[in-house]
Specification:
about 150 residues, alpha+beta, 5 strands, about 35% helix, disordered C terminus
Length: about 150
């Protein structure tokens, strides 16, 4: 792990918050949604979602441009598959993260153990507006940097 990783994360989050607020000027959204996430990864990382599965045409992966490793997975799933008691379906984002951070987030509203991924190294975020947009952006940063931090797929 890179020393000072948490400092790096905190500095990024502060910079991203200021940058995002300036870009959106009055359009800042409190809760994350699919369109905001796609807009952000295109602008910040140059990432286009890849739709790999014919049987799941709404599901896509986000890849590193250089290594082609996944740093995120976008899916449309039934809420009950996440352990929620609600009916219906929801957009989710699975992100790679450090186990300690996952442990701290898992009890918060809008976060679940990773759906269809390694639960030790990935976390699921519901994109229904529950989780603040800025928090998702910070977690995207840690997911994008996760290969550099620990080499876990």
């Amino acid at each position: 792990m890179i020393s000072g990783g948490s400092t790096r994360f905190s500095l990024f989050c502060m910079e991203a918050s200021q940058e995002r607020a300036e870009q959106r000027r009055g359009e800042y959204k409190m809760g994350a949604d699919l369109n905001g996430i796609l807009e952000y990864v295109r602008a910040r990382y140059g990432t286009e979602p890849e739709f790999l599965w014919a049987k799941s045409p709404n599901n896509a992966v986000l890849r590193h441009k250089d290594s082609l490793k996944w740093y995120g997975v976008l899916m449309y799933v039934q809420k009950r598959k996440l352990g929620a008691e609600d009916d219906g379906s929801v957009d989710i984002l699975d992100l790679k993260s450090e186990p300690a951070l996952i442990g701290a987030l898992i009890d918060k509203k809008g976060f679940f153990p990773a759906y269809h991924m390694n639960k030790e190294h990935w976390i699921t975020i519901v994109l229904d507006g529950t989780v603040p947009e800025q928090e998702v952006f910070c977690l995207l940063y840690t997911s994008d940097a996760a290969d550099e931090l620990d080499g876990v797929d």
